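hi!! sorry for the late reply, been swamped w classes. u asked for the two structures so here they r. pasted raw, havent cleaned anything up. first the sequence of the first protein and right below it the tokens
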Amino acid sequence: MFRIKDKQLHNPVRSAAAKISAMLLTGGFLLSLSGCAGDMVTYDEYNASVSAESNLNKVGSTFNTESYSGEPADYEDATDVYKSDDGLCVIEKKPSYFEIYLDYTGGDYYAVGCAYAETISKVDLEFAALLEPYLYENIKMAFPNLYGDYAPVGDRIEKLLAGMREEYRQEMEGFATTISEGRRGFTEDGLLSYEEALLIHIVPDCLRGTNCNAFSAWGDKTESGERIVSRTLEWTLGSENQMCLGQAVTHFKMPEGKNSYTTFSVMGMLDVLTGINDDGVFAGILDVSSEEDYVCDGKKCYTYELRYALENMNDARSIGEYMIAESKNFTYSHNIIITDKKDCLVAEDCVQDFAVDDAADETATDDAGETSGEESKGDADDTSGEGSNGVLADASKDSSSESDADDENRRFVGKSVLRDEDTPLTDGLTWDNPDSLCVVNSFVTEGNRDFCTINGGNYVRFVKYNAWAGEKEKLSLSDVKDIVTRETEDKASRFQKIHSENVFQTIIYDYGTGELDVTFTGTEGVVNHPKFVRINIEQ
């Protein structure tokens, strides 16, 4: 099908949409539901008939007006404690989540993996019933036509494990061997097999993640002058919200020479979705709606490379530069928000600069506004290894290994950039709040692949953050909480939300006080004005 090239109509539409969206969000543009009786004079003295006054009444709002100002976060006490026989794992059951302690000073990675699985088996929780449906829901989304043949899934697991760092691979194998009790293969039977237990740890790299968002403010934008960072994890809650039963905070106590750190995800998962190390480096992953070819042969898991970085690096910039340098070795493109006291960075990790189509038409675009041919050549010529602001980059050859293909058959996928608040944004996006930035499920750097302005969900959330962050000159911790939970749980809203029905956790860290607060969605689903729980991250 022939379609108009994106850029021919792109800029005027986006510019108008941005103005309208901003006015809608800030209340500067009001649409009256009542008309005025009689005639109304318009241009050239044309008289248009206007309907009589409407009887429509406001029945609700998608905005929550309750504030966190003056409302402290809760502390939760353990109701049960479970320990492995060797003491390498301790799990505390709390009302909203499980607090897990893994001790790598007393045993190697394999032993800790075994101890973790052993302790989970003691917990009053049907762990397999929790995780197995989640795995198969994700498998069926990634592979809709398997028809019971799970060989492609097994192939991905095998290849990703081959590229895994040895210590993490041993840890996963210890966990899987212990939890599976000799079961093998893929069968939806309410039990976990060895292969299924391995898959638990690599879903974002093997099958793909879901939507997320993040925001940070600092300097003149915060009351304290210190950084505040927020990260909302939107995850598959499960068909019956069963994943919420496994909410977990996991503390990794590491031997001398490595950083200890804390992660926030689901019990049993050992990769990093969101984490903070004892140097105060905070990091959270966000999937990006890119269209690269999936390649796992010879690749690494970015969630484990991020874990490695948190274990071994002491500042945000070092971690960001490391993830950018490794980006072509990953399977799926993504963003990572990375902060410390000094920096707030976003690693726009693109796994493939170009993809090669068997046949391409220079006048066509795909449904996401993807262009080919001459329109991509401007980006193809940039092989300097720098982003538009010089903060970048590994612009190595794409993983398709088709560098000799005709230009018209090469489509631009994106490039890897380490952006900060000063990085120029893609055409059609405006950020009006110095000393702050936001992240959605798209690259937004100028010259990078744009899945923000052409995607309503990404664009609306970006505009909302820009508008709501600008409502106050300076933000407090409670102000940030109010922003990220402002929307109600009403599913009838026609616009994509920051606080959506898929929110699994919202994690907020205040560098000024060292306080870290988390909302944990329960089995009732996302609620209005969720409770924040204070987490002690000191080890």
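now the second protein. again sequence first, tokens right under
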Amino acid sequence: MFDRPLSPLERLIPVFLVAVFVLRLVLGGMVGLGDDEAYYWDWTRNLQLSYFDHPGMIAWMIKASVSIFGDNAFAVRLPAIICNSLATLFLFLLALEMFNMRTALYAALLHTLVPIYALGGMMAVPDAPMGLAWSFLAWIGWRVAIRASTGTFFGAEDRVTLSTWFMIGLMLGLGFLSKYTTVMVGASLVLFYFFDSRLRRLLMSPGFGLALFIAVIAMFPVFIWNAKNGWPSFAYHLSERQGGGGGANFVRWAQFWVSQAGFFTPVIFLLNMFAMLIALFRSNEIQWRYLFWLSFPTIALFTAQALFAEFKPHWTAPGHFALLIASAKLFEEGFGGREEFQKTFRRRIVGWSTAVFLIPLFVLFHVAVLSPVIPAVAQAVMPAANWDPKFDPTNDLYGWDELAKHLNMIRDDREKNGTPRPYLASSRYQLVSQLAFATKEKVYRLSPGTDHYSFLQTPEVMGALKDRPMIFVSDNRYERDPRGDIALYSVFSMCAELEPFVFSRNGVYARTFRIYDCR
């Protein structure tokens, strides 16, 4: 299973992974939701087959959880925490079956510590169920390859069983119901099988046809919703989101590369890129060839996309999943050192370089969600810079309950004076969904643009708001004065700005909410 005994520190890795799982469960219930988490929770109040932004899996999972545990942050995050932990488990199993125990432990540790995965480890976002589907498909896809090339799979059968192909199709479909990016792991598996002469016949087998059929059937909710609504989600992701980039933009492309180094840390990003290159050079070995095809298509696609259109730094994360194994294996091998002292020296250099980035960032993130330490760290690093609290993402988790109480006081006062209770509105989905979660009321989005709320706020719904009093809220992240939008809507004709609500975390300024009384 491994060439040399595990060290005491290596034996503690499973304990650390379990501890992180428990930590996520605890923190997940202690702090408020992020903007996107609140948005996906708000989807659950009007369950649909799919949604404009993403397919519906994350909403369905949150709905099941809050139905059991109540409308609270813990219940919202629980499915995602479980999905992310299972993704780490399948990453571990894949690395174990491809190489050895030490490589598997290193890969699982990286998946837990690398910022882009650690930050999402307890976030209720579509990437969580997608990551689980991706990791499962990577694991079972490898087992299919080994069975087809060596004649052993799930026992002594002479072929890959139909039940295995059924699982592949089902998980591909469920992954697609989580996030469209899942199609890339399917494409990666097809490319891997196609370019291996021993495995190419799998693509002509009845089992592969069954997998495709099951996957398409599982994807039907997305197709049905899009067909009913004029294919808006596909148009958004495949066309509208890719437009407006103004052609090749090398400044934006440079920003993409910087963001990759930031979200993965410079050491891990460079190590993963080096590992992908090594995987290509060692493609005569089936393990390395598999890791290359699991990573290269996704990373190449989103790297090229960033040159021509807007990008999100985390879009490449699934492609780096396999590279964590490749990097872990290179580390375990000592990066090609011939003598043991060379291997040990190289492992120490890379290990300490990695730890210098990963451990402080991991600690900082988990402390920052509880205490406003990021401004102090930013001031220590850049003392001459003027700190803007909107650059602290942990501020998004706080202030909403306090704001809700303040708004209820205003509305209670209006009712006491004989005015109907005002409804709440804002201009961005982030603010709308956070207010909705804090108040457990329906909150309206009043601004141009398309999102989930565009499909709920029909002309009939908006018409019913006419002549009703409204409280409109914006903040220092997304400032918008509704008085400039009066011509866009017929639901109000005048607004007066009230005293802003300023929120601080433990005495540290976090956010200013601007409040407007409209009618």
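hope this helps!! also noticed smth abt the second:
The CA atoms of residues 232 and 406 lie 37 Å apart.
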